Amino acid sequence: MSYQNWLFVGVGAGLVSVAVALYLFYWVKKQNAGSERAREVARWIREGASSYLKKLYTSLGLVAVILAFIIALVFSFNLGDLGSSQITVNSGEGLRVAITFIFGAICSAVAGYLGMSVAVEANVRSATAAEKSLNQAFRVAFYAGSVMGLAMVGLAVIGMSTIYLATGDPELILGFSFGASTLALLAKAGGGIYTKTADIAADLVGKVEIGIPEDDPRNPAVVADNVGDNVGDVAGMGADIFDSYVASTVAAIMLGAALPNQSDSRYVVFPLILCALGIIASLIGIQFVRVGKNGKPGVALNNGTVITAVIYALMVTALVLFGGYDKGALWATLVGLVTGVIIGFTSDYFTSDNHKPVQETAKVSGSGSAINIITGYSYGLISIVPCVIGIVVATLLSYYLCQASGTLSGVYGIGISAVGMLAISGMIVSADAYGPIVDNARGIAEMSGMDHEVIERADVLDSAGNTAKAITKGFSISAAALTVLALFASYAETIESTGFALNLSLRDPIVIAGVFLGAMTPPLFSALTMLAVTHNAFDMIEEIRRQFREKPGILAGKELPDYNTCVGLAAQGALKSLVLPAFIAVGLPLLVGFLLGPNALGGFLGGSIFTGIVLALLMSNAGGLWDNAKKYIESGTFGGPGSEAHKAAVVGDTVGDPFKDTAGPSINTLITVMSLVSTLFAPVIAAFHLF
Amino acid sequence: MSYQNWLFVGVGAGLVSVAVALYLFYWVKKQNAGSERAREVARWIREGASSYLKKLYTSLGLVAVILAFIIALVFSFNLGDLGSSQITVNSGEGLRVAITFIFGAICSAVAGYLGMSVAVEANVRSATAAEKSLNQAFRVAFYAGSVMGLAMVGLAVIGMSTIYLATGDPELILGFSFGASTLALLAKAGGGIYTKTADIAADLVGKVEIGIPEDDPRNPAVVADNVGDNVGDVAGMGADIFDSYVASTVAAIMLGAALPNQSDSRYVVFPLILCALGIIASLIGIQFVRVGKNGKPGVALNNGTVITAVIYALMVTALVLFGGYDKGALWATLVGLVTGVIIGFTSDYFTSDNHKPVQETAKVSGSGSAINIITGYSYGLISIVPCVIGIVVATLLSYYLCQASGTLSGVYGIGISAVGMLAISGMIVSADAYGPIVDNARGIAEMSGMDHEVIERADVLDSAGNTAKAITKGFSISAAALTVLALFASYAETIESTGFALNLSLRDPIVIAGVFLGAMTPPLFSALTMLAVTHNAFDMIEEIRRQFREKPGILAGKELPDYNTCVGLAAQGALKSLVLPAFIAVGLPLLVGFLLGPNALGGFLGGSIFTGIVLALLMSNAGGLWDNAKKYIESGTFGGPGSEAHKAAVVGDTVGDPFKDTAGPSINTLITVMSLVSTLFAPVIAAFHLF
Questions:
Q1: Least buried of A148, A307, A451, B588, by fewest C-beta within 10 Å?
Q2: What pLDDT was estimated at residue A79?
Q3: Number of domains observed in the structure of chain B
């Protein structure tokens, strides 16, 4: 089969994927939406969520248009005329890049919007189904999650394949990826700020000050809290993997295009074929995710992931052996896939209550919250070690195995291993998006006064979601690491293709300066998003207190609180807080590049990758660890709920909230966006820079 | 004056410095040691401290002898015969390197021991002097601090100058530096674990559980807590700057020796001349540290630093202009000096209660300890930014200004700027060591029941000490950054001098792998030392509770608690916890080098520098910020002592304790030791490595 035909297979797989997603959406909507009370609660959440998304997409649309305009302008100049005569770049394609940029942003937005829409429909239906059986509730939640997973990979592959079919120009796919990632970053960071603002404010006034339970409808922030779970965890979270998915494919395509001695473009198209096979494997794997009568939902989700991975591995092996591809490409794919799964399960060690880190943290909580925090933070630091070793091994193996093949370059191997990891994102995202849906189902069951038995079932579903989430996080961070390493390599290739003699030696002071500046960027970005959370939560706490004070009927249960004010506060606060982080992601790399030159910018990207990965692992794992240490104590150990140890663990959990849901997961996307913008503007920077 | 004569000036300045230190020691001992009660309290602390130091130095002596033996063995082979024939190294000097290694370790130990000894004599005398006047108490404490500062720089300069006079071989000074730094690292980390174990345990049982004040003699851990202030903050802290002081000088000497086209060794000796001038400037500057009748001790300390810096700058300018040195060397010195002072005062912004970070953190404390911690942590992350920019500017300026001179290399400029910063360490350490002495004086005043007025005076002295400490920390971290960059350069020079073609490009996967492995090392090291604190504190809390339970007479004030058990627990725990961190510092770089080769080891050093500096800044500044946010609330704002905000701020302060006093300050020394061991073993690694 010629490589061109494979592109049609990709488009076909993408269309099937989107079609299945739409069918499942339709199926979910057909399910019983429950009692009048439950419908009302669900309506509040749905309206809050869509009002936020409208505001978000309006702002982001504006940002996208401005960026597209700049891109169109910059890339319309013939740089060869203006800059150094030695440097030649493609010019005059400004409009085309701008259009693909907008196209990427729209695909990312549609996938997120679809995921959100189905999530807010699914949560109430999953809760209602839980009145009948665990199995039925699980199906509703998981299929709803699959809508997000399948729509995402489908749209991504359709977008990339059609662009390549139409133009054959990898740089245009880069524009697509940049659009998708920029939108994803803002959706992720904004959603992360929104969700934790509402969560912390609702908990601190509701649970701590007033003493009403979680998800109590008397709490004015309870709707904002539930909206937050959707905009932060569903719409935002999917973006986390989506942007790595597209970016890794683009990086591999560009590295493939840079391979010497190619008779055809088979290695350029190879990453897209991997994506297509990953979609097919995911579509099959999803069928196997079923919970028996007394089955365990967590096991079902993990089985789905493993089955998908195995089917995918078999298909890639067949492709390489019978398609006449070099075996190095197969090794790189398998290295990525295996490493991704292993690292995923490793992070489970640090965040699951079956192992020492969580248990030890829970145990020392009896000595106060400070000791809980120091211990959890320290284990978070240690959790960096196995993941980094995994990333190092994957990098070295994929590089040298691919290089040893003779026809392929080592960096192409790194790119392929990232794609190999991310190709099964359809399944991974489905399992991940399931989590916040059942979390919300539990909230709705509580708010609409369902039976205790239903809430217990929802708890079982929720706990499975947490495990799936922990595994996905380890997976997505390691995938992002390989992706940005591949992007880093294609940045270097792009700079050199202009004729600039790139020097990234750590002995050059300008490279060292770049690395230091890059190294401080992820910490700065994290700090800004976390300060946004505490700042906005502080405002919302005042608003909740005001409502309780001015309307005593709320606490008595005679009067409905004003949910909308809190929803609006969270939305406004989140959007306003995005300005500076957005500048850091897009503007800072360009500033470094134009001021200090391509060598410094290369160092900058390297530095941001190193501290970015370290910080992302620390924050995600420490956050998950604190969360589960609290739940472990709530399960009755070390004094159980209400004990001093429990109070200490609640503080740790609250510290971990913005770690794991705001700052931590945005860092991946941050470093991806910085790498993409640098690679896209590389030819311009090579032509114009101050030093 | 010939360069040889300057070495004698160095030795002379060193001897004068040590002599003045001994005189001041004698002067301090002559002061009134106070009432019988105060003498008794001081005796407990002195005995606890010397029992810990004896144990520490016994263990460290053993470690030093083993390492010396290995060094003697390894460097006695003629590597040219065994390894690749292309690689030539100096061989047969094993014994000489081993002896200088032991010499360095002894100098470091003597300086620390002297500092400790005078500190435990001075605290009670400063408290007693505070009964008469603030001025007199300040003098006792500051002169005692100067004993440490002057002894340290004196011994260092004597050691380095005599080795160079006797042998003319920079590699032997490297051995001296490695010995000094290894001892410093273990003293620092051990002291940091000791002091926070005792501090946290004493506070959690005493202040939180039982409700007795800080420094109450009924608390069985109170002596261990006060001993900890001495072994952690005095003996350990001085080591922090001492090892940078020696290491920066060695790095500059080695880079000077690698300069091409030298008629004499003037640029090899230049760093030692800078040290000698720095000592002279410090000796003069110390005279100006005086508090008038109603003067402020903080102002007096800062004045001393500024006057010393100005005198030093004038002397260096004269030296370069009239000594026929290249002006590039002057610029590099001044760049280092100015940057050090600026960064020092910048960190004051993040940790002083006159500015937004501390005030904002104090303000949000009303919403609970989690919000306090998230806010403080975020500002800690932001505090990285100005310091990193300062380091970057200093690196680039010193490199390019020195390179532009024509005769000097750029990396020599970086080395000189580090020495330029650290040459006035005599004054800096004096001001820093003053802090824990007055802190202890306050404790003794409380424990021996002195007047309220005396305790208030001690508080004023203590607060000045905290500001001095914050400035010193910023100073020492930025100095360490330049030092390790210079060491990094001399590692590269050493590897290349063996004929190995070093490649440190970030495009090489083995370098990337090294950087990732290096990047995870400071987090791992920090986690191990902090877990040691919580682990040991947990044991000590049990012991304190046991004593209160079994001897009710203690709380009634009728029976003395058993102080010694707590002192012993803290000491044993700290020493046992050092094994793994010590392996990481010395063994891990060698492991990476011998397994993955010189390129990976270069990456490893780079990675450890990048995350090490970022983490050290975060931990030191966040810790100081939480401490002062608590004190700000205690001064009566946002509810004052006993309020909910205060309780929240106490949790933040406790989290910050191991950040700023255990993990944070050890990281500098960790990366210095790793750079030194790599440079020392560089010729061997170049000859033997697996990949």
A1: A451
A2: 59
A3: 1
